[in-house]
Amino acid sequence: MFSQDLAQTLLVRHSHFGWLSPGGRLEEDETPREGALREVTEETGINADLLVHEPVAVLGDHHAGDRTYGLAYALTADPAEPLRPEPGQPVTWFHLKDLPPSYYPLDHPTLLAFARDLRC
After folding, report:
1. DSSP structure string for 2-22
2. How far is CA 15 from CA 24, 49, 87, 91, 100, in A?
3. For the segment 34-90, what is each residue's pLDDT rounded down to a tens digit?
4. Where does 2-119 sit in CATH, by number?
5. Which terminus of the chain has a lower count of CB atoms within 10 Å, N or C?
6. pLDDT one-digit tens code per residue, 90-110
């Protein structure tokens, strides 16, 4: 989730994992794109637009025999739009040059690479 000028990203504070991009699981009969847009609205209260209609990253996790695949979409929104986060999960816009610590070590380089590639 980026601001329209690709200078900021919107992150959600999760109690166990720190600041992360909005996300979650698909609901039954929902496409990945629909799920991405729904999760952003549920977690932040804002309406986002797809910047690119295809996933910009596909991640796999094989934990305890289960296979989970994550699709990352590039979304944009207006930072001036009021945020309405879920209870207990603060939401904040961060400048890409001043990102908070993340549980996942590849989050920051990935966000910076997405923004750089999208500017081209």
Report:
1. EETTSSEEEEEEETTTEEE-S
2. 15, 27, 12, 12, 14
3. 999 999 999 999 999 988 777 666 666 655 566 666 777 889 999 999 999 999 999
4. 3.90.79.10
5. C
6. 999 999 989 898 767 677 788
1/9 Cα distance (integer angstroms) = 6
Amino acid symbol at 73: Y
The owner of tokens 């847009």 is: 37
- The residue type found at 37 is L
Contacts of 50 (CB under 8 A, 6+ apart): 33, 36, 37, 73, 74, 75
pTM over 0.85: no
- The residue with tokens 């596909």 is 58
Of all residues in the chain, what percent are helix, strand and coil, respectively (each to 5)? 20, 30, 50
